[in-house]
Amino acid sequence: MPGKTPDREPARGGNNNNNNNNNNNNKMKGKGKKGEDEKMTVVVPPSKKKEDVEGDVVVMEGVENEGEGEDPVEKTVADIKSNFALLDRAVALFDARFTLRALRSVSSIRKRLTGDVLARVVAETYMASSSGAEIAVGLLKAIGREEVQLGGKVGGGGGEMEIDSEPTTKAGSGKNGVKKEQKEVIPEIGVFLGILTQVLLHDGKQWQQGLEFSRYLIEKIQELNRRALDGLSAKVYFYFELFAEQLAPLPPSSQSTIVTIRPTLLAALRTAVLRKDTDTQASVIVLLLRSYLLTSHISQADLLVSHTQFPENAANNQVARYLYYLGKVRAIQLLYTEAHNHLTAATRKAPSSACALGFGQTATKLLLVVELLMGDIPDRATFRQPAMEASLHPYFLLVRAVRVGDLEDFESVVAQHGDTFRRDGTYTLILRLRQNVIKTGIRMMSLSYSRISLRDICIRLHLGSEESAEYIVAKAIRDGVIEATLDREKGYMKSKEVGDVYATSEPGETFHDRIRACLSLHDESVKAMRFPMNQHRLELKNAQEAREREREMAKEIQEGDLDEDDLGGEFEGM
Prior knowledge:
Blueprint: H1 5-24, H2 46-68, H3 72-93, H4 96-104, H5 106-109, H6 115-125, H7 133-142, E1 153-154, E2 163-164, H8 178-181, H9 187-203, H10 207-224, H11 230-245, H12 257-260, H13 262-275, H14 278-294, H15 298-307, H16 316-332, H17 336-349, H18 357-373, H19 393-404, H20 407-416, H21 418-424, H22 427-431, H23 433-448, E3 451-453, H24 454-460, H25 466-478, E4 484-487, E5 492-495, H26 506-527, H27 535-559, H28 564-567
Antiparallel strand pairs: 1-2, 3-5, 4-5
């Protein structure tokens, strides 16, 4: 019988293979006959592995096709409703981070947001008899969907909405059962849907309707008076200001709508300060500064800054906006050093993502002009950034004209790109650079020549007369731009010898400024650190338990119940 053993083993292998294949996929019948060959004396044939791989591929392709064919309306509705759980946790745990996560999703939802989608979410979230039905009706009225019934199932898809006016009455009847519909909706969900309504109206350029709805939403927030609404109310006031800016007459007219809403913003600021509402306080201060700058009320903006204190623990984006507007106010007030510090901090705090590219470009443009007004030349690497190279090209030409002190080139750049400078809001500041261009030219000539006549200065700077050149040189000497003497009788300027700058206190002051900037950055980083809540209590509990175990162990050692062998090694004193 030993000679028949090789024949039986393949037969057994073939039978096992047929059984396995019948359980997985009934397509491998008859393949067990191939086991007659000695090379096929394996328990698992290669064909099964191939079949499994192909089967897996088919399943994965089905999953991918299912994901690709998902209805965008259903996905948008699901994304909106997923934020309701975050708002519930924010209220239950009183943690504003969950509210912030919900607000961050607005930027991705707004690309797919429509009136039908929003009406469907409102109808499926609120019941006609619920406490939040009033705000739900206001939401539907704002988007023009008054016919939608609350508590009904609104059909999705790209066509018209189908309204099921027969609400489900059986408990536990699926997703629309009474148990789920009777759950009380917190006011934060209604305000969040109101913010989505504001976004929809803003994207649809319905300015007047958006302003009216924003007033209605602000009144509801004031009636609710809940601290969990602080982060949401800040966003409501933000869109409230944006709607007012777009209504005629446009700023800087004194009859603009932004002037009429200032009492509302000031009242909101006073209330936020009393309630220690950091989010609303920071947002409203930024909006008021923006409003004052749009109407050129610089003195009122300065009074607002001097009589209010911006919250230290405000969000980073609000801090960046506040520093930008404050830097613009200081630049208009001729306080270029303070303006430079604020604008530098604003550009550093600005997010590096593509969503904040516009703010980064605007802040950088104003920073370049302020640096030129201070007499400094910006770094050339600033203009080589790929994201800012095209938008900063007019300012690059302006910097080049100021650097060489060419007054004619400067005036041609201002005339050629005047519309761009006006649109950026830097035109009036750029007009002040004319004196800086002249001073730069005089400084370069003082470094190049030990003695130069006023006539040559007049020719090189394209001035009208030698008297103008004399007055300009005298003012430059008085302001400390150049170190020279002026001989009026002989009509020339004589430069003094350049001393060693390291013999002065200027390097030490610069080094001190850099150290102070690094220390302030360290302090801000420490303040921005977050730690898990109640983590210290767990550490204290563990430490207390460890001390108790040590006391018990020491007591047992003293009583002689334990020795070194029981401790697993040598015992060193407590």
